[in-house]
Here is the input.
Amino acid sequence: MKGTDLIKELLRSGVSEARALEFVRVHLKHPWIWPAFQVAVEEERAENKNRISAKACWERMRKNAQRDTGMQYALNNNWHSLYARAWAAKYPLFKDIFEFRELTKEAA
Here is the structure.
């Protein structure tokens, strides 16, 4: 998903412009996160889950990153909900697999 499309989708889902821009900056700086998130989502879905948690995907990615690279703190918890929103925007047929809560002022 292109940065501009991603920003539009995040804004549409209630994310503030500043947070959306910061997310895109992180997304572009760490390109390995998006494919790892997609793999984690598919692994969670493969376990016959109708609903999955973005946090569970994030923890799966963290465990895999620690195992594969030895990086202890490879993922910042501030971004998992935005990756889930980006995933739902990219794959609208599966948008209901995540439960999205209204973002608080601090998270938006």
Q: What stands out?
A: The chain has one domain: 3-97.
